[in-house]
Amino acid sequence: MCGIVGYTGARPALSIVLDGLHRLEYRGYDSAGVAMVSDGELLVEKRAGKLANLEKALDELPSGCGMAEGTTGIGHTRWATHGSPTDRNAHPHLSRDNGIAVIHNGIIENFAKLRVELEAAGIEFTSDTDTECVAHLLAEETAALDGGGRPEQRLAEAMRRVCRRLDGAFTLLAVDARAPGAVVGARRNSPLVVGRGTGENYLASDVAAFIEHTRDAIELGQDQVVLITPDSVEITDFDGRPAAGKDFHIDWDASAAEKGGYDCFMLKEIAEQPRALADTLRGRLGASGEIQLDEVRLSDQDLRDVDKVFIVACGTAYHSGLVAKYAIEHWTRLPCEVELASEFRYRDPVLDRSTLVVAISQSGETMDTLMALRHAKEQKARVLAICNTNGSSIPRESDAVLYTHAGPEIAVASTKAFLTQLVACYLVGLHLAQVRGIKYADEVSAVVEQLQAMPSKVDRVLETMEPVRELARALADSRSILFIGRHVGYPVALEGALKLKELAYMHAEGFAAGELKHGPIALVDQGTPVVCVVPSPAGRGVLHDKVVSNIQEVRARGARTIVIAEEGDEAVVPYANDLIYVPRTPTLLAPLVTAVPLQVFACEIAAARGHDVDQPRNLAKSVTVE
Ligand code: AGP
Question: Rounded to two decimals, what is the model's pTM?
Answer without folding.
Answer: 0.79
